[in-house]
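Hi there, hope your week has been kind to you so far. Please have a think about how the structure follows from the sequence. I've dropped the whole record in just underneath, so have a look:

_____
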Amino acid sequence: MTGAHSNNDEASITTGVEATPVTDVSGGDARSPSANLPVERKSALQENIERKGKHAYYFAHAHKATGPEWDGNIAPKLLSLSSLQEGLQTSPASFEYHKSNITSYAFSDEGKTVKLYITLEDVGEKCVEGDITLDYTAQSFCLLVRNYDAECKCLSFGKLSDRISAATYKLKKDKVIVILTKEKDGEWHTINDKGTP
């Protein structure tokens, strides 16, 4: 509440901040010159947060921004590369794009196994069993199809949804079927593990 009033032709402005007298605990005069300074009151939000801590209704508002001051430029600004680079180095890729050039496939969860259907027109005529290799670990696999095109075809997953105990393939006329045997029962909604948030 702000208002103006005049007193003997002097204009003064009052604010909503009240001056609270300070009590002198040493027994001296509490009305010393420093005692007449106004003491700023905290907002109800700040008082609630200080009184109740993390249990305060307004706790979410307690965080203070610690970033750099705004420079007035509306263009985005990169603050740090370190957290981005750490995340890239520590988490294994679930789908290794640098290895894979087969990006279209279908999969079916069949209880104890998961089947991937990779359509490659006339693969059964162009390739023989020795042209196809399937390497796997408990959490990954890599399928290579050689002599199909000028370029070797590859489908690779660096981290599967869960562990597998075996991986085999079947060569058909127009497709290759990869069969992954699950180590334990459980439904797979995707082939790759996308990690935890």
Confidence is low (pLDDT under 50) at residues 1-17, 88-94. Helices lie at 44-52, 82-90, 123-126. The beta strands are 3-7, 10-14, 106-109, 113-119, 132-136, 141-145, 153-157, 164-171, 175-182.
